[in-house]
Amino acid sequence: MQLYETEICEYTESIWKNILDLEVKKIEENYCPAEGESILAGCVHISGEWEGTIALDCPAELAKKITSIMFKLTEDELSSDLIQDALGELTNMTGGNIKSLLPEPCYLSLPAVTMTEYGLKIPGSELITTVTFKCWGYKFKVSILKKKEPVASKN
Amino acid sequence: MRALVIDDSRAIRLILVQILKALKFEVIEAGHGLEALEKLKESGPLDLALVDWNMPEMNGYEFVCEVRKDDRYKDMKLMMVTTETEMAQVIKALEAGANEYVMKPFTKDMIVEKLTIMGIDVG
């Protein structure tokens, strides 16, 4: 069992149920986007007593579907701005809930969202937990990355 | 009754506006605290504001402090609707003049319950 895995499942299920009325299920298989697959990567940074990043990686197709639910629009009517807003808020809620598990005081950044084919790289961080979920046949994942402790100088 | 919904996420504003409209509120929206203060200047005192914490330009806590400095808004109910979970921060917002606090993700029932606690008749 990875650190905070149970809590990530609980929070993610609650957020997707309450905001989108969607059931999501944790799966054992890891979400690794196929080559060339567009994904939306959302992240919030946490600073303070604990430093790191909470990331939400989601296939662009699923991001469109959840935005369509949130804004009650058809997928054809969606702009990239609305899709980023929707995924940003899901990331924000996920990060905010996970922050409640961390030592206080901690501060949450505003969410950032990007569309990528390569996933999000957070330099100076190590992946400590990643949980993959399935919704409507699409996989997505929530990850916790902790900022690496600075290596002590040899001088 | 009239309400102000302040959140930098358009998706969350839309969800909150739909909840409030279903409760017969007339609703004004703002994307951050500064914009909300401008909207308040135009509208005059309202019955209620639902306020996110983490926003650009001016955050929700700063907005609450600004509103509570102005006697014209003394009867306006302020409810934080936010992902902020730290007890120290919750207390800080309540001490600054917020009347209630609800965590995201919320449901319509949670919002209605808090409005009732604040003495707002939602029928």
Describe the protein's architecture and organization.
The complex is a heterodimer of chains A (155) and B (123). Chain A is α+β, with helices and mostly antiparallel strands. Chain A has one domain: 3-Layer(aba) Sandwich (Chemotaxis protein chec), CATH 3.40.1550.10. Helix content of chain A is 31%, strand content 32%. Chain A contains 3 helices and 7 strands, in the order H-E-E-E-H-H-E-E-E-E. In chain A, strands 1, 2, 3, 4, 5, 6 and 7 form a 7-stranded antiparallel beta sheet that branches. The longest helix of chain A has 20 residues. The termini of chain A are far apart. The mean pLDDT of chain A is 93. Chain B has a single domain, classed as Response regulator (Rossmann fold, 3-Layer(aba) Sandwich), CATH 3.40.50.2300. Chain B is 44% helix and 20% strand. In chain B, strand 1, helix 1 and strand 2 form a beta-alpha-beta unit. The longest helix of chain B is centred in the N-terminal third of the chain and has 13 residues. The mean pLDDT of chain B is 95. Classes of the chains: A alpha+beta (155), B alpha/beta (123). Chains A and B meet through helix 1, helix 2 and helix 3 of A and helix 1 of B.
Average pLDDT of chain A, rounded to a whole number, is: 93
What's the count of strands of chain A? 7
Taken from the alpha-carbon principal axes, the silhouette of chain A is globular
Looking across the biggest beta sheet of chain B, what order are the strands in? 2-1-3-4-5
Mean of all residue-level pLDDT scores of chain B? 95
Number of helices of chain B: 5
Largest interface: A-B, 26 and 21 residues
Shape of chain B: globular
Strand elements of chain B, count: 5
Largest sheet of chain A: 7 strands, antiparallel
CATH homologous superfamily title of chain A: CheC-like
Helicity level of chain B: 40-55%
CATH class of chain A: Alpha Beta
Give the class of chain B from helix and strand content and strand pairing. Answer: alpha/beta
